[in-house]
Records
---
Amino acid sequence: MNIRLLMTPIPLDKADVEEKTVVVIDVLRATTSICAALMAGAKGVIATPGPGEAGDMRAKLGGDGVVLAGERNGVRIENFHLGNSPSEFTDETVGGMHVIMTTTNGTLALNRANKGKHVITAGLVNMSRVVEAVAREKEDLLLVCSGREGHFSIEDTICGGMLIHRLTERFGDELQLNDAASLALLLYRTNQDNFHEAIARGEHARFLASIGFEQDIAIATRVDSMPVLPVLRDGRLVNEVE
Ligand code: MLT
């Protein structure tokens, strides 16, 4: 089983993702919020690269049963119902609804990766569900860290490293890692007893804390607290029932 990790989604083209199981990671906060939306009973999450496409999608689906969510510079986009805090996705706000989501890095990465054979989103909050799914399929994996505006982010790389670590426990030497995957594994193992702190010290966590979203970092680093498996089907992320 080959595991290739990309520390940022740029460059990423069709040839990178075709015929692969692609796991998109944006711990702070898009792929955590996607889990929160599905945990809260959203029918599905449609990720669009920008607010314009989100509005077009809403018009296409009709306004009823649709919630617009997302952020730019960390805060809710004007005229959107919700921002990108996982705590905003509740039964009341998204239960039974479709969520159209656009975020700075996470939904952009998803849109770049959406031609994969299987597309899954992962955070720390749904780690075990993702590990089970990819271990069952046992196909070559592409892990796409959303990063931060084209740059490395510690939280996504630690999350990718934890996923690889869990897979090494099952498959040992059968795994062939690219160098970025080896580095992610090393980063996770070096920080495994205090990865919350390592993430909280990271650039994006510090930024989120500075604009009042410190609580989101605690939510996003609770491993397996949201046991859903978001998989892309017909353009929307839905929870694959166990
Ligand atoms: C992103 O996609 O860039 C993030 O989810 C940003 C955030 O809301 O913290």
---
Amino acid sequence: MSVYVFGHKSPDTDSVTAAIAFAELMKAKGEDYIPVMQGKLNPETETVLKRFGFAAPEIMTDAAGKKVALVDHSDLAQAPDNLTSNDVVAIVDHHKIGDVTTNQPIYFFNQPVGCTCTVLKVMYDLEGVAVAPKVAGLMLSAILSDTVNFKSPTCTPADKKAVAELAAIAGVTNTDEIFMEMLKAKSAVAGVPAMDLLHRDYKDFDMKGKKVGVGQLELATLDQVADMRDALLNAMKDQKGGERHSVLLMLTDVVKEGTDLMVVSDDPAMIEAAFGGKLANNSMWIDGMMSRKKQTIPNLQKAFGC
Ligand code: MG
Ligand code: MG
Ligand code: MG
């Protein structure tokens, strides 16, 4: 029976490329693993797949009746629909352990590093499987993306080592050039509907029974969204509806290394306190904030008493 490898909802480059790289590793071991994704490619991932000559994986959102491997997440909120404890046979991740459970022992590999593809490089080495050059290109792109070209606080020495080794395998000499090409693709906002921008890199989290959505847009400069603030705010209000406690949008300036945090919340004062900031026109600048996982989410969890 085939195993379908799922990244998280609102797929990012790590989610898609880790699904491909893990499926390739398992195929090399004689197993039938098929990479899929839960939504359409974002512009950054599209650029990466094209550069290294890969077709987009099939879109699949329902796990009913399937054997499933999860990469880049282990939260039910980010997992495919109708997932049961019987279905999951493997998890490869670099996040905090989520709420997915299993009924039998599984292949579980998680490390506190900057990217799932860094974990996968370690797994390839452990299994003694050579990474194909094209796959190495995908993996190093994902690491550059997740670590924001090594600038994110999530970046570890293991990520830098993996990129150096993968670049040698892929025959890539200038990784900065790859990062800039990805940044150009991902920060292109002109003509894109605000709701699509909110969902470009978006996740819902359960905070003590309250649903909180956090999106992130990585930009070369905040000027790129200057004309779109009202539209983004309206999209956040629509997204929040009555269902969510808060919706946050991180407008991250990759060059200045900080985030203008847009907030729509039932309790704005609580969000202000969580980040030690003061909202003006529904947003506040947080110097040094680059990572949703390592900075935004832990602060929110503390504020919600998780
Ligand atoms: Mg991800
Ligand atoms: Mg990741
Ligand atoms: Mg990310």
